[in-house]
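Can you give me the bound-state structure? Components:
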Amino acid sequence: MRYVQEHCTLIYKEEIAKGVFSFTLKAPQIASKTQCGQFVNVLCDPFQLRRPISIGGFDAQAGILRLVFEVRGKGTEWMATLEEGQALDLLGPLGHGFPLLDSGKKAVMIGGGIGTPPLLPLCRHYGRNATVISGFRSASAVILKEDAEAFGARTIVCTDDGSTGFHGFTTQALEEELKNGTYDVVYTCGPKIMMKKVAELAKAHNIRCFVSMEERMACGVGACLGCACKTKTEDGGTAMTRVCMNGPVFEASEVDFE
Amino acid sequence: MTDMKVSIAGVEMKNPIITASGAFGYGMEYNEMYPIEKLGGISCKGTTLHERQGNPGPRIAETPAGMLNSVGLQNPGSEAFVNTYLPWLRQRDITVIANIAGHSLDEYREVARRVSDANVDLVELNISCPNVKEGGMSFGTSCESVETVVSEVRKVCNRPLIVKLTPNVTDIGAIAQAAEAAGADAVSLINTITGMRIDIRTRRPILKNNIGGLSGPAVFPVAVRMVREVYKKVNIPIIGMGGVSTWEDAAEMMMAGAAAIQVGAALFRDPYAPIKIIEGLEAFASEQGLSSVTELTGSVQEW
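Here's the bound-state model for the whole set.
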């Protein structure tokens, strides 16, 4: 079985920025199958639809899963009320994650806000060869900088208001980074408009780029076709492709961002 | 021990629980979690003559106790259904229902001919999809057009024919009678109820298609009432669906008149929902001392 339904006890909960929560869960079955960039579909008990949440960390040996999410709507609001010791019903690990190069290769990752968590497992893989460019509204919204650095990654934080780090967009910081350094691969997760620009920059520098897409989702396993996004086909046309199963990670050149 | 077998238009199923079209694909994804052979049957994703890409996203919106979808019949087409997905299903001991849709009478006829020539057990005629611009539900909302499409499809369909009805009509009993008169072997109901949600910040509908079909527990009482209404009007078997999430729901819908049950949106909360429904229904039927689960059908005693 590639994915399972598992009742996972919340063992550590922390609000790492206003409205942004980090959950560490006991999830031995899911953790043992997880790869970088996959997600879980979380049952939010009062609601019909599960919420897809990216996996921000996993340890197969310890049987531990980390989810970092932002309270955006009623489902995540409900999730945030959970206390340590209570259990979450997770379906996962789901989807195709980030393809990994040899860990000696140099990777640059661009995360927009709550798109940053799925990049963290990549930092563990690439270690000192990882550079993370992450963008936030302001200093108080910055998350996971120290976590990435703990894996040896270099971090470049960007803020909209300049209250910390680089005052500007992640894509501006990436442009500078690509001018000065040589990278073998680009990974990105965040707002579509940001990922579109990241994909253009990667293409201009002839670097492979992988994007993690998001869409409103129902089944999470590929059956219902609810989460399809527009992708390009080999013959120059477009197709509607399942984010949950064929993604969430796509080769940037496959995605139609229009 | 209660006999869980049911028979729809002469086709025997090992139990009355069928996964609903569109919610379960062709069973491959859920077969990762449990053997789909435990199910009575599977109603496959709606198949059109040629591949369809469906509607742009977002296609999903949550609602109180339910959801809207506007997938728009995305499917790989009848040839891929027959050559790729059907052979995989036929290796499994499960009743296979091909669900077919079209945008014209010609397309309905052609897709019915192709899938019923293949090795399916039953054909479910979808004249109730709310998410396509042409055809779909427009065939299912008047008695005249229902009679036309059902009788035309009946002529070319070599398998028992189920007609799937839309609830978006004034008198579903009359529509069901029209389907029966035109040669339907069974009816299934309800398809989704059309609905809409708006994001009040952007003042845009959440669905790119603007409207979609409502399913989930929210529609269950409507479905029970409609199954009951149809049960009083026709003599062919009814496959009941619409918000069935628990074995209690399944028992209730059977008492209203359903001979079998389809489960759709409940899968998204709990992938094991159909399995739990089968187990719960069997335990209930035994506890009630029934020799056959079919004794539940239509057994409500109205006031």
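A couple of observations. The domain at 6-54+74-196+215-296 of chain B is CATH 3.20.20.70 (TIM Barrel). The two ends of chain B are 31 Å apart (CA to CA).
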